[in-house]
Amino acid sequence: MSKPRVLILSWEYPPIVEGGLARHVRKLSEQLVATDGAEVHVLTRGDDTSPAEEEMDGVHVHRVVEPSRPNDLGEFIAWIEHMNADLLAAGVELGDRYDFDLVHGHDWLVAGAGDHLAKRFRCPLVMTVHATEYGRHQGWIEDHPQSHIHGVERWMTNRADRVIACSAYMRDHITDIYALDEGSVEVIPNGIDPMDLVPVDDLDTLRGKFAKPDERLILLVGRLVYEKGFHLALEALPGIIETLGNVRFLVAGSGTAEADLKAQATKLGLDDHGTFLGWIGDDALHSLYRIADLTVVPSLYEPFGLVALEAMASGCPCIVADTGGLREVVPEGDKVGLRFNGGDAEHLAIMIERLLSDDVLRDRLVAEASEHVLSFDWADVARSTAVVYRDLLAVSA
C-alpha cells in the first residue's frame, strides 16, 4: 500500500498555541512524515500574521484566518461553529487540489468540518479525544453550553470510523459515557521529546527571583480551572510552610478559576509565600521545571498528565493525584514519582513533606524518571497512529 495522504484538523497549531493540543498535533504530524513517510496536511486556524500556507518540518500547513476567540463560553460555541464552516470551505478547496485518503480530527472543536470533509472525500474519519466535557465538569453537563459540547462529543465518537484515546483510562471513560464498543477505541499515549524542553533563562538568576537559596520551590502548572485541582495544593501549603518553614510556590497558567485561587491564597495567608505568574510561553515554562524542587499535579480529572511527563523529563520530581491518566504516566510504587489520594489535600501535604525532607528519595525519583520518560516516544506514537490509518484504509479499499 502506498503511503497515505492525510488531512489533519486542529483548532490550534503553532504559532497559535492554546494548550497541549497544538503541541500534540505538531509532533504527531512531523513524526508521521519522518517515521511513516505519510504526506500530512494540517488544516487549522491562523491570524493576520501567519501565512495561509507553508511547509513546516515536512508538514503542509493550511490556515484559515479567524477572529480572536471570545472568553464567554456561550459566544465560544457560536465562534467554533463559524470556524468549522470556514475550515470546511477551505477543506473543500484543498480536496480539489489533493486526493486525501483519510481525515483525522482532534476533539469536538473540529468535529463538524471533519465529518463533512470525510463524507465529501469518501474516506475514513479518525477522531482523537483529548478530554471530555463530562470529565471536565465531573458529570454536570445538563445545562448549556456543557450539554451542547457533550452532545457533539457523543455524536462525534459514534460517527468516527475509529476513535483514539490518550490513555487506557480515557478509553474506558469514553466507551462508558458514549456507549461505544471498546474495540472501536484505540489507546495511543501522548509522547514527549526531552530535546523540546530546553530552558532559555539564566537559571540561577531566574530562581533568585522566586526563592532564596535555602528555600524549596513548588511549581503548579496548567489551566486554572476547577478540575485541575490547584485549590487542593493551596489548601495543603499552610501546613507545609508551618512544618518546613522555607517553602515557596509558583502558579503558572491562567483560566476561569484564577480570581478564586488568588482569593483562596489570600485567605490562607499565602500571599507572601508565592507568585501567580499568569500564562507563560513554553520556553519560560521549560525553565521553571529546571529551577523548581517539586512539581505538583493535583488534578481531579486528567486524561493523560503531560505536565508530570514534562517535569520528569526536565529533572524535576513530581507528586500527582492518583486519578485518571496520571496513573499511567506515574506508576504506583514510588518508582518515578509520588502519588496522593485524589481530592485529599491532607494526604497531599504528607507526600509533599516526605519528598522535600528526603534528598535520597528525591534523587532516586529523578534518576528513575529520566529513563521512564523515554518510553513516551513520539516516533512510537506516530507508528501506532499509522497502523490505525492502514487498518482503516485496508477495510475501505
UniProtKB/TrEMBL annotation:
InterPro entries: Glyco_trans_1, Glyco_trans_4-like_N, Glycosyltransferase_grp1. Pfam families: Glyco_transf_4, Glycos_transf_1. Coiled coil: none annotated. Residues 19-194 form the Glycosyltransferase subfamily 4-like N-terminal domain. GO terms for molecular function: hexosyltransferase activity. Residues 207-370 form the Glycosyl transferase family domain. SUPFAM superfamilies: UDP-Glycosyltransferase/glycogen phosphorylase (SSF53756). This is Unannotated protein.
